[in-house]
Specification:
Elements: E1 13-14, E2 25-31, E3 37-46, E4 51-60, E5 68-69, E6 77-82, E7 88-93, E8 104-108, E9 127-128, E10 134-140, H1 153-161, E11 173-174, E12 178-179, E13 192-198, E14 205-206, E15 214-219, E16 225-230, E17 244-249, E18 254-256, E19 262-269, E20 275-282, H2 284-289, E21 299-304, E22 311-312, E23 325-327, E24 330-337, E25 340-347, E26 354-355, E27 362-368, E28 374-381, E29 384-392, E30 399-400, H3 406-411, E31 412-413, E32 417-423, E33 429-435, E34 444-450, H4 464-471, E35 475-480, H5 489-492, H6 502-517, E36 520-530, H7 532-543, E37 549-553, H8 559-565, H9 570-575, H10 583-591, E38 605-610, H11 618-630, E39 635-640, H12 650-668
Parallel strand pairs: 1-31, 34-35, 34-36, 36-37, 37-38, 38-39
Antiparallel strand pairs: 2-3, 3-4, 4-5, 6-7, 7-8, 9-10, 10-13, 11-12, 13-14, 15-16, 16-17, 17-18, 19-20, 20-21, 21-22, 23-24, 24-25, 25-26, 27-28, 28-29, 29-30, 32-33, 33-35
């Protein structure tokens, strides 16, 4: 069950199906405070066990020795974090110990290689205080449930025989988690409160009693206060999330610092402890209530540590900042920019945003030494899965520390992605990439790949599916149509009220550009996408007959049915301006549903879907499949039991990729 293209030009063989199991990547780098070491997560696949596996590895920043494994390979390990003095490395592990339910473990790093241990009382992701005296964390706080009334004999029998579920709350499901306990009831869904414990361990001290989840705690420079976010409206099922900024001192004094309906995240302290910097955006409930025709801008703000007037530090910068890190006079943050991801900084006092790292690649997980002399991060591009790199904090002096796929990349000939830019029908500039299959005979069949979201973006990253298709002789086009991130607010929100309109025009403009500039057989075009990409694939085959084959992964067919069966009705209420029972929005939801245009489909289509998908329930795929079969259009449905929307096991991914290529081959080659 291995498909191969023709012989490569370099002597290396084309990518094979089983190579999926060989791909490794690095993530979550953590540089030591003294800047000498980098711990990172090595991600791999255990093919025989159908399991994704993670381990913590360590390498010297100067590259003087190869990386070594720190954690027991019998257990998954992730999220490395150094203590301020560099003597301890904390991490999360599936390993269990007698008498403890905690998944947080520690290693002594004076002599790496010792046995992992647990610190008594630490029962959540540890946040070391700057003075190294305390460890803060959040954990669920159990509350006493009301004692149920006694059941009579017949009632007890009924209860014992009942194998279903009953609920009377609205938020009943979430993809990846299944059906939820009552989110309104603290006894059913205990809140995550904030705790501290001495560095050496002990009885945890509870700092908050908010009854809702505390998130992203951050220590003040003097180790006396923790800033965090929490949504006091969490138990209100008619309110979308709107966490505020709070603070808690070690003596248990809790202060609420914001309360304006906006959504706050990722608080960080300025070095002098006088101010907080955080991400801020308009809350979704406000957006829906105002019936806006656009979403909320995300910016970094500075505010006095005690609360008060805010200053927008990125008001004139049109991208989306990730969480901030402060040092000296600057705040540092990562952001997507035109298909790449890089590090930026802005003055804490306000001023121009400056890009630090460069290149056609996607960087992530930026981590800095205590004095900001060096930083470490992961880096990936279209031909290289993520490895660990290090440089000075200004981006100079870069060095690569790992080569996790060195053996695979020597064996396999991968195809480079060529960045292209083309005008859409209205002149809007759109960015994309084209992979031309080396060793295949031109003109090539073309596969158009549509990303999910829609508010995400393709970019300079390794994608096995693209390389797999190219290895089978297909040219691959992937682009970022309107609705994609990393091109500014106007571009990002251009699809509101019109999914399938401007984004469809952008995708088709990319096809026309590719046909004009590359040796493509215009009679052999295919299209595929997953999630939003599955929706747009469904939509595309209702709008044009140019494609001879399609593969729809977890795609919406009917927005009306999706509203009441998916776990996120928010998308319909915001981006389609209302609910199915309101006339204008109801008509819009149906008009933009691929199912309403199914009479125009002529494209043979393969549907792949997880049976446990709660983000795009499997009935969406079934509706479109039934419509095609009723009209005698070739169609096939592959169902994957137990799979949610994302996070599929490796065997199922390989099965899916094989069958997608077989379907496309059947109609295009």
């Amino acid at each position: 069950m291995v498909l191969l293209a023709g012989a490569g030009l370099t002597g290396a063989r084309p990518l094979q199906l089983d190579d999926y199991y060989r791909v490794m990547s690095a993530s979550g780098p953590a540089i030591s405070p003294d800047g000498r070491w980098v711990a990172f997560v090595r991600n791999s696949i255990l093919e025989a066990e159908n399991q994704r596996h993670t381990e913590i590895w360590l390498c010297p920043v100067d590259g003087s020795a190869p990386p070594v494994r720190l954690t027991n390979p019998s257990f998954n390990a992730s999220a490395p974090r150094w203590s301020p003095d560099g003597k301890l490395l904390a991490f999360r592990s599936s390993r269990k110990s007698a008498g403890s339910d905690s998944d947080i473990w520690f290693l002594r790093m004076r002599e790496p290689g010792g046995e992992a241990f647990q610190i008594p009382g630490v029962d959540g992701e540890p946040q070391f205080s700057p003075d190294n005296r305390w460890i803060a964390f959040t954990k669920e706080r159990a509350t006493n449930a009301e004692k149920p009334r006694g059941l009579s004999g017949p009632e007890m029998t009924l209860e014992q025989r009942f194998k279903g579920r009953a609920y009377d709350w609205m938020n009943i499901r979430y993809d990846g988690r299944g059906y939820l306990r009552d989110p309104r009831d603290p006894a059913a869904t205990p809140p995550r409160e904030l705790y501290v414990v001495p560095r050496e361990g002990g009885v945890p001290k509870q700092l908050t009693t908010l009854g809702v989840n505390v998130q992203t705690p951050a220590w003040s420079p003097d180790s006396g206060v923790l800033a965090f976010t929490a949504d006091s409206h969490q138990r209100d099922e008619y309110s979308y999330e709107r966490p505020d900024v709070w603070s808690a001192s070690l003596d248990g004094k809790v202060r609420r610092l914001t309360d304006d309906g906006y959504e706050y995240s990722s608080p960080a302290w300025t070095p002098d402890g006088a101010s907080l910097i955080f991400r801020r955006q308009q809350g979704l409930s406000q957006v829906i209530q105002a019936r806006q025709n656009h979403g909320a801008a995300v910016d970094l703000y500075r505010m006095p540590a005690a609360g008060g007037p805010m200053t927008n530090l990125t008001a004139d910068w049109d991208l989306i900042p990730e969480g901030p890190v402060t040092h000296g006079e600057f705040v540092y943050f990562a952001a997507e920019t035109g298909g790449d991801t890089h590090l930026f900084r802005a003055p804490i006092s306000g001023g121009r945003v400056e890009q630090i790292t460069k290149g056609e690649r996607s960087l992530g997980g930026f981590t800095f030494s205590a004095g900001f002399e060096r930083m470490a991060y992961s880096s990936a591009d279209s031909q290289h899965p993520a490895d660990v790199f290090t440089s000075r904090a200004d981006g100079t002096g870069e060095a690569r520390l790992t080569a996790l796929n060195e053996g695979l990349l020597k064996d396999v000939e991968l195809n480079p992605a060529q960045r292209i830019r083309f005008p859409s029908a209205d002149g809007t500039s759109v960015e994309g990439w084209i992979i031309v299959p080396r060793g295949a005979k031109a003109p090539y069949p073309l596969i158009v790949c549509v990303h999910g979201g829609p508010h995400m973006a393709w970019g300079s990253e390794f994608d096995y599916e693209f390389q797999w298709l190219a290895a089978n002789g297909f040219a691959v086009l992937y682009a970022n149509p309107r609705g994609s991130t990393s091109y500014g607010e106007k571009f990002l929100w251009a699809t509101w009220g019109g999914w399938g309109k401007l984004d469809y025009q952008d995708v088709m403009a990319g096809v026309d550009y590719t046909l004009e500039h590359y040796p493509i057989d215009r009679q052999r075009l295919g299209v595929t996408g997953y999630s939003y990409g599955g929706f747009l694939t469904n939509w595309i085959i209702t709008q044009t007959q140019r494609f001879r084959a399609a593969v729809t992964g977890a795609g919406i067919a009917n927005w009306l049915s999706d509203y009441g069966t998916a776990d996120i009705p928010r998308t319909k209420e915001s981006e389609f301006y209302g609910t199915p029972w309101e006339q204008a929005s109801g008509e819009r939801l149906w008009a933009l549903s691929p199912l309403s245009h199914a009479a125009d489909v002529t494209t043979p289509t393969l549907f792949v879907h997880g049976e446990a998908d709660l983000r795009v329930p499997i009935e969406e795929g079934e509706q479109m499949y039934t419509a095609l079969k009723k009209r005698h259009i070739p169609a096939k449905f592959i169902r994957y039991p137990g799979n949610y929307h994302v996070g599929w096991p490796a065997w199922d991914m390989v099965h899916r990729y094989y069958n997608e290529a077989e379907w496309l081959r059947q109609y295009l080659q």
